[in-house]
Amino acid sequence: MEKRESRCLRNTKETKIDLALGLDGDGTRYQVDTGIGFFNHMLEGFARHGFFDLELKVQGDLQVDTHHTVEDVGIVLGTAIREALGDKKGIRRYGSCILPMDEVLVLCAVDLSGRPYLSWDAEFTCERMGDLETETLREFFYAVSYAGAMNLHLKVLTGGNNHHVAEAMFKSFAKALDAAVSPEPRIKDVLSTKGSL
């Protein structure tokens, strides 16, 4: 299988984003600068635990708030995932992970079906973590799921510390996505009776 990589740019009046993604990395090559410290931490965890290569540089209108930056990074990341996958031949398509982080337990399931859908069952008990508004996390995953044309289910099974909840969500997504994009030698084309995804 050829190395699966993509680079996506997004330039608007609200954000300027340059993102390079490699699906076949080892989780040690990542550089993330969104201007939002907590968001950087979450995306670094995503790259590390999903074994992805990730380079991301963002200039956003943070003088307004973090919404545009977080949502647009989701759009660009989802687009990069979709483009890096190409025709999706030979991949497992599905991935899931139930991830513990201390008292917190989060479930994530992914289907790279070509059909966008987000199922979200999570609550945060604070308005922000660092400089990041917690309500933007749903917008991020919604944008990833739609730009990436994937079913994405995130469910907090056991809540607790807000930092732990957010971090478990990003890490479980990373593990589920890594499983879904992984090659399966028994699949010669795509895993669908339709013949395409």
From TrEMBL:
Localized where?
Cytoplasm
MF (Gene Ontology): imidazoleglycerol-phosphate dehydratase activity
Q: What class of enzyme is it?
A: lyase
PROSITE patterns from the UniProt entry: IGP_DEHYDRATASE_1 (PS00954), IGP_DEHYDRATASE_2 (PS00955)
Q: What is its EC number?
A: 4.2.1.19
* Biological process according to GO: L-histidine biosynthetic process
Keywords in alphabetical order:
Amino-acid biosynthesis, Cytoplasm, Histidine biosynthesis, Lyase
Please verify whether the record's keywords include Nucleus: no
Catalytic activity entry: D-erythro-1-(imidazol-4-yl)glycerol 3-phosphate = 3-(imidazol-4-yl)-2-oxopropyl phosphate + H2O
Q: Show the InterPro entries listed in the entry.
A: IGPD_sf (IPR038494), ImidazoleglycerolP_deHydtase (IPR000807), ImidazoleglycerP_deHydtase_CS (IPR020565), Ribosomal_Su5_D2-typ_SF (IPR020568)
The metabolic or biological pathway listed in the UniProt record of this protein is: Amino-acid biosynthesis; L-histidine biosynthesis; L-histidine from 5-phospho-alpha-D-ribose 1-diphosphate: step 6/9
- Entry GO CC: cytoplasm
Please name the Pfam families in this protein's record: IGPD (PF00475)
UniProt record similarity statement = Belongs to the imidazoleglycerol-phosphate dehydratase family.
Q: Which NCBIfam families match?
A: PRK00951.2-1, PRK00951.2-4
What name has this protein been given in UniProt? Imidazoleglycerol-phosphate dehydratase
